[in-house]
Amino acid sequence: MSPRPADVEVGTELPEQTSRVTRADLVRYAGASGDFNVIHWNERVAREVGLPGVIAHGMLTAGLAVRAVTAWAGDPGAVVDYQVRFSRPVVVPDDELGAELTVRGRVAALLEGDRVRIDLTVTSGGEKVLSLARAVVALG
Amino acid sequence: MTLDAGLVGRSYPPSAVYEVGREKIAEFATALADPDPVYRDPAAARAAGHPDVIAPPTFAIVLSLGAADVVVEDPDVGLDYSRVVHGEQRFTHHRPIRAGDRLVATATIDAVKTVAGNDMLTTRVDLATEDGEPVCTTRSMLVARGTA
């Protein structure tokens, strides 16, 4: 069920979402997206270019984060705008647990035409990995 | 090297047609561990008011990544790709991308700037049906670290 515009106000919080990202998830996302950049699957190359290890695709992080919005909105087609700024890489260790992502969201503004702006806070290991993550949802 | 401000506004020829397939959408949704039936089940998508299964909000990256290659490979741009990281990404949906769409991507250089020795290049990709209906506009900002 989509939220009704009358029930939404600035400060309304979205259900918190947590997900895990393993090396296998990176391989799957590489294939699905066509982004085969080596730093997302090869530890040796990732370290050679100065990274702490294999890192998640920024767009995988962004794609997982916006699920908190689509689940709340009820219809993914209601997301009319989505923007992210990448601030810190999500390092994915070579183990079964991988990295954890936590997504919190709140309604930050009511816009014209029954649209609302959702601001997301996306963290991994307690650190913000997106310095900006913002979606506009058309309600009703 | 510092990016040339005169590149702003440069547009590239439209891509070949990309036909959006149901299986590709399902594969992308699975890679995001998203079980939503509107990505897989045409009946569920129709119940939600869509003519066919729709794509997740970030699916357009599949098309825009490829379309933006023409910019990165433009010798006048001269971006050192080995030093490039993805800085920002934005999707503006004019309507959801859906299975059966036959989309054409057109890349344009939206902005160039240099901040603290880093070159920043923003490429806009306009996705439209082959009949010209606007579907999605993506903006990708790439940062080339320490190249300016």
Q: What is the number of helices of chain B?
A: 3
Helix fraction of chain A, binned, reads: 10-25%
Biggest pleated sheet of chain B: 5 strands, antiparallel
Output the helix-strand order of chain A.
Answer: EHHHHEEEEE
CA-atom Rg of chain B in angstroms: 17 Å
- Range of strand content of chain A: 25-35%
Shape of chain A: elongated
The total strand number of chain A stands at 6
End-to-end separation of chain A in angstroms reads: 10 Å
SSE string of chain B, helices as H and strands as E:
EHHHEEEE
Oligomer designation? heterodimer
Figure out the total of helices of chain A: 4
Structure class of chain B: alpha+beta
Main β-sheet, spatial strand arrangement of chain B:
1-3-4-5-2
Structural class of chain A: alpha+beta
Give keywords:
heterodimer; A: 140 residues; alpha+beta; six-stranded antiparallel β-sheet; 6 strands; B: 148 residues; five-stranded antiparallel β-sheet
Q: Can you walk me through this structure?
A:
The complex is a heterodimer of chains A (140) and B (148). Chain A is of the alpha+beta class and 140 residues long. Chain A is 23% helix and 34% strand. In chain A, strands 1, 2, 3, 4, 5 and 6 form a 6-stranded antiparallel sheet that branches. Chain A has helices spanning 23-33, 43-48, 58-65, 67-73, and strands at residues 17-21, 79-86, 99-111, 115-124, 127-128, 130-138. In chain A, a hairpin with a 3-residue loop joins strand 3 and strand 4. Chain A contains 4 helices and 6 strands; from the N terminus they run E-H-H-H-H-E-E-E-E-E. Chain A starts with 16 loop residues before the first strand and ends with a strand. The model of chain B has no long low-confidence stretch (mean pLDDT 93). Chain B is an alpha+beta fold and 148 residues long. Chain B has a 5-stranded antiparallel sheet. Chain B has 3 helices and 5 strands. The longest helix of chain B is centred in the middle third of the chain and has 12 residues, at 61-72. The A-B interface holds A 19, 25, 28-29, 31-35, 49, 58-60, 62-64, 66-67, 69-71, 75-77, 79-86, 132, 135 and B 24, 27-28, 30-34, 36, 38-39, 48-50, 54, 56-58, 61-62, 65-66, 82, 85-93, 95-96, 139.
